[in-house]
Write a structure and sequence with these properties.
This protein is α/β, with parallel strands linked by helices. It has 2 domains: 270 residues, Glycogen Phosphorylase B (Rossmann fold), CATH 3.40.50; 185 residues, 3-Layer(aba) Sandwich (Rossmann fold). The chain is built from 18 helices and 20 strands. The strands form 4 sheets. Strands 3-4-5-2-1-8-9-13-14 form a 9-stranded mixed sheet, sandwiched between helices. A 6-stranded parallel sheet has the order 17-16-15-18-19-20, sandwiched between helices. The chain has a 3-stranded antiparallel sheet with strand order 10-12-11. Strand 1, helix 1 and strand 2 form a beta-alpha-beta unit. Helix 4 crosses helix 5, helix 5 packs across helix 6 and helix 11 crosses helix 16. The longest helix has 18 residues. The chain is globular. It binds adenosine-5'-diphosphate and alpha-D-glucopyranose. The site of alpha-D-glucopyranose (GLC) has 14 residues, from helix 1.
């Protein structure tokens, strides 16, 4: 199959969160299964070094409102995977990906309208005629409507089917009505049956209404976003209307990259069979030393790796932890909301030998922290899928998380005998406190090694999920499925 993947971030080129993990590793997995995959990304400042290896570069004129911008597209090849970077330095060559210092760039409507048109113009220029155009989140939400309104008769793109994956309903790409015309659409689209949402243009809604198929990143979240206004963020009605086209496919993990047996960031390798033979303990020692945690090495180390956003419930975590100070050490890595960062910084500064906070986005420190953690805390108010908990389990940490979205699909209460972690009700300090108590108690008991091993042995690989996407693409194309490999 010829599959075009368009995303605003993808590993290893640019990353602010799990979207990058998914867009990058799903594309690579589909290519490794023999599909012809074309991944298109913006060329951000942090991505620039990759473009140096470009096999070729083409120049494109891409419409943006009444102007035509001349930009270049750098092309890279990795086997069946072709990657195109849309290079417009004035728009993408900035210090941040979506914004700086907690504030979005004011012209994100222009940036991602241009990007969406550039994706389609690049495919045309290269004569890459996709059977599937797969867009992710609001930044590429315009692609399905552009295909229908502006490219339906196009010889290269006219037969493409569109799939839109929602990684997070809370980011709706809301802009003034006039921004509709930036991508070449008519102001007529400002209607409730199209992309208008309470007087604004929503790039997310454009994807939800016009894509041939919708997916989201876990089965539970697929239900939640249709059921409640909190999780559906006001678009639950639209999702219910399109329910029969909506599927929840749990994300996979790049298990080669996230592998404590060959992770260069760790002091010693370890795997499920060797986790208690020193490798994980060495990671914990190294991290405690680096972070100045020195209360007691036999206490469980609780780790948090997170975007700093209300979604992640870190305020709830601090309130629950505050009452249990004697029982753990804590290391937090996070970036995002400056006010949340300030409150965590203040909390850590009150207990410097017990609590450590590193503010920023630090890939290598994240690996060390997953490995060092005995307990991984993820008390999200909502969680479309969540990769943090899967990575943590793979590195031998036991998860304390919320019963929400993809967390509820991957973490199961340990009391059940077959569980792998501890669950709390989202946003509930008391409930999280009780889950923490159960975990802290279990840490000192005989069940712990089983929990650790069970988590490490769980198959979080892309095999299952990539097949689910392929099946969805095939169904959409109306192709006979044929015998399955
Ligand atoms: P979300 O996409 O909502 O942020 P996920 O759990 O799906 O949450 O994915 C988060 C991804 O981003 C994981 O790969 C995690 O390790 C990484 N991550 C989050 N915050 C940081 C940070 N401050 N530094 C490094 N990596 C981070
Ligand atoms: C979003 C969600 C997260 C999900 C990720 C990748 O950022 O918040 O739950 O894992 O996308 O799909």
């Amino acid at each position: 199959m010829r599959i075009l993947q368009a995303a605003s971030e993808a590993v290893p080129f640019a990353k602010t969160g799990g979207l990058a993990d998914v867009a990058g590793s799903l594309s690579a997995k589909l290519a490794s299964l023999g599909h012809d995959v074309f991944l298109v990304l913006p060329l951000y400042r942090e991505t620039r070094s990759w473009a140096g290896n470009a096999r070729r570069t083409l120049t494109l004129g891409v419409p943006l409102g009444s102007e035509t911008r001349s930009l270049s597209v750098a092309l890279l090849e990795k086997g069946n995977l072709r990657i195109a970077f849309v290079d417009d330095p004035a728009f993408f060559g900035r210090p941040g990906v979506y914004g700086e210092n907690g504030a979005d760039y004011a012209d994100n409507d222009r940036r991602y309208s241009l990007f969406c048109r550039a994706v389609l113009e690049a495919a045309k220029a290269l004569e890459f005629a996709p059977e599937i155009v797969h867009a992710h989140d609001w930044q590429t939400g315009l692609l399905p409507i552009l295909l229908k309104r502006l490219y339906a008769g196009d010889p290269v793109l006219g037969r493409a089917h569109s799939v839109f994956t929602v990684h997070n309903m809370a980011y709706q790409g809301l802009f003034p009505a006039s921004s509709v015309t930036l991508s070449g659409l008519s102001l007529k689209e400002m209607s409730p049956s199209s992309l208008e949402f309470y007087g604004k243009a929503s790039f997310l809604k454009a994807g939800l209404v016009f894509a041939d198929r919708l997916t989201t990143v876990s089965p539970t979240y697929a239900r939640e976003i249709q059921d409640s206004i909190e999780t559906g963020c006001g678009m639950e009605g639209i999702l219910r209307q399109r329910s029969r086209f909506l599927t929840g496919i749990l994300n996979g993990l790049d298990v080669d990259y996230w592998d404590p047996e060959k992770d260069p960031n760790l002091p010693e390798p370890y795997g499920a069979a060797t986790v208690f033979q020193g490798g994980k303990a060495a990671a914990k020692r190294a991290l405690r030393r680096e972070c100045g945690l020195k209360v007691d090495g036999s206490l469980p180390l609780i780790g948090i790796v997170s975007r700093l956003d209300r979604q992640k419930g870190l305020d709830v975590a601090i309130a629950a932890l505050e009452r249990r100070l004697g029982g753990f050490e804590l290391a937090v890595l996070g970036s995002g909301d400056p006010a949340l960062a300030a409150s965590i910084r203040q909390y850590a500064s009150r207990h410097p030998s017990r609590i450590y906070f590193r503010e920023g986005f630090d890939e290598s420190f994240a690996h060390g922290l997953y490995a060092a953690s005995d307990i991984f805390l993820m008390p999200s108010r909502f969680e479309p899928c969540g990769l943090g908990q899967m990575i943590a389990m793979r590195y031998g940490a036991v998860v304390v998380g919320s019963r929400a979205g993809g967390l509820a699909d991957t973490v199961f209460e340990a009391d059940s005998g077959s569980g792998n972690g501890f669950l709390a009700e989202p946003g509930d300090v008391e409930s999280l406190g009780r889950a923490l108590d159960r975990a802290l108690e279990a840490f000192h008991g005989p069940m712990w090694p089983k929990l650790v091993e069970r988590g490490m042995r769980t198959d979080f690989s892309w095999d299952r999920s990539a097949r689910a996407y392929i099946e969805l693409y095939e169904n959409l194309m109306g192709a006979a499925l044929g015998p399955k490999a």
